[in-house]
């Protein structure tokens, strides 16, 4: 818990020298040599708690989807732009298509018969499908079906493209670590085939056939991998896991994170850790009438409502939510969830970065 209520403003500033010609000359020398003294900017460089430039914000699916549909009518998919993806720009981040200082989120839209050309990049990516069928993403030559409720992975430096074989368009959300990669100057990009390299449409990808057997690991793949080798985490298993947690709670067993709040984390089966080194993915289910504890967390997180109705309270302001709506929680902004009906939400965050660097801190209301 943070118990010291002092702030930079409340502490007497002992480094306020008298304004003299000599002092002004000193500061001029700093400016001419591209220097900035710490004593004039401590509160900005070292705030008492995280103060993100990103702000809490909600994007409505009822606004996002029509704009994506219109983009499908007007903007072709092909080389140059590569993807018909519309980034969610946090209002506090100066017009960049960043949902947080570390994360990028977008709605991507693919019309019937379209191919999004293959490419690869250093940035880690995933896709989550809130509705629709008929698209396959091909990752390093492995065709992966995209269906409602599925989490699809494209770890960094894997060639990938998408094609829609259905008679209907399809929309989904993309999540990447683009802002973090850009800040760290680690990005590489390479063009691949102009069309997907495998037009097959199997129900299950080769990666799933090899890896998706509970508690079993192929002896041919004993080396640990940085990112998960599973291309698709299927909704049927996510749904079953959440359902069983709530049933166990009914039986008096310790299976949920809070009363009425079931949750799972998608994991890399080779390490038991996060699916990718920079992004954590989770799924949460609240019983109707459940309200979670208010919490503050270092790092940023994004939610999308998968099903149901409810609300999020961000920094004391309540926002009603329904299917498809997305919202962002910047670092250390207090938040809680309220369920009107059964309330299912997909969540992704930069928690692996914060934990690995030792910056993670969480404060939960009512807990010491």
What does this 3D model show about the protein?
The protein has 368 residues and is an alpha+beta fold. It has seven helices and 22 strands. The strands form five sheets. Strands 1-19-16-21-14-13 form a six-stranded antiparallel sheet. A six-stranded antiparallel sheet has the order 2-3-10-5-8-12. A hairpin with a 2-residue loop joins β6 and β7. The model has no long low-confidence stretch (mean pLDDT 95).
Chart the SSEs and their pairings:
Elements: H1 21-32, H2 42-45, E1 57-59, H3 61-74, E2 85-87, E3 104-110, E4 115-121, E5 125-128, E6 135-139, E7 142-146, E8 151-154, E9 160-164, E10 170-176, H4 178-184, E11 189-191, H5 206-211, E12 232-233, H6 235-250, E13 261-265, E14 280-286, E15 295-297, E16 301-307, E17 310-314, E18 317-321, E19 326-329, E20 335-339, E21 343-349, H7 351-356, E22 362-364
Antiparallel strand pairs: 1-19, 2-3, 3-10, 4-9, 4-11, 5-8, 5-10, 6-7, 6-9, 8-12, 13-14, 14-21, 15-22, 16-19, 16-21, 17-18, 17-20
């Amino acid at each position: 818990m943070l118990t010291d209520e002092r702030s930079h403003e409340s502490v007497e500033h002992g480094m306020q020298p008298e304004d003299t010609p000599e002092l002004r000359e000193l500061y001029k020398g700093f400016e001419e040599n591209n220097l900035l003294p710490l004593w004039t900017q401590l509160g900005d460089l070292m705030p008492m708690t995280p103060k993100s430039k990103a702000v809490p914000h909600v994007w409505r699916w009822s606004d996002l989807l029509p704009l994506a549909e219109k983009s499908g009518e007007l903007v072709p998919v092909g080389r140059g732009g590569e993807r018909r993806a519309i980034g969610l720009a946090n209002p506090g981040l100066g017009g960049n298509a960043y949902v947080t200082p570390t994360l990028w989120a977008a709605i991507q839209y693919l019309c019937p018969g379209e191919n999004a050309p293959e490419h690869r990049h250093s940035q880690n990516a995933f896709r989550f499908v809130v509705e629709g069928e008929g698209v396959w993403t091909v990752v390093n030559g492995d065709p992966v079906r995209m269906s409602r409720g599925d989490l699809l992975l494209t770890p960094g430096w894997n060639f990938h493209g998408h094609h829609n074989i259905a008679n209907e368009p399809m929309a989904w959300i993309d999540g990447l670590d683009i802002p973090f990669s850009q800040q760290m100057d680690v990005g590489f990009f390479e063009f691949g085939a102009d069309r997907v390299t495998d037009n097959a449409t199997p129900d299950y990808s080769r990666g799933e056939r090899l890896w998706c057997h509970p508690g079993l690991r192929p002896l041919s793949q004993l080396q640990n991998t940085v990112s998960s080798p599973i291309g698709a985490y299927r909704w049927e298993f996510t749904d079953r896991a959440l359902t069983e947690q709530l049933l166990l709670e009914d039986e008096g067993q310790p299976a949920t994170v809070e009363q009425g709040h079931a949750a799972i984390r998608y994991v890399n089966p080779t390490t038991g850790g996060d699916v990718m080194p920079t992004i954590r993915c989770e799924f949460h289910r609240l019983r109707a009438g459940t309200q979670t504890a208010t919490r503050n967390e270092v790092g940023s997180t994004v939610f999308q409502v998968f099903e149901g109705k409810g609300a999020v309270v961000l920094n004391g302001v309540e926002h009603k939510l329904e299917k498809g709506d997305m919202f962002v929680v910047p670092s250390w902004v207090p938040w809680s969830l309220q369920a009107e009906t059964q309330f299912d939400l997909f969540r992704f965050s930069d928690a692996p970065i914060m934990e690995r660097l030792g910056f993670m801190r969480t404060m939960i209301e009512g807990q010491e």
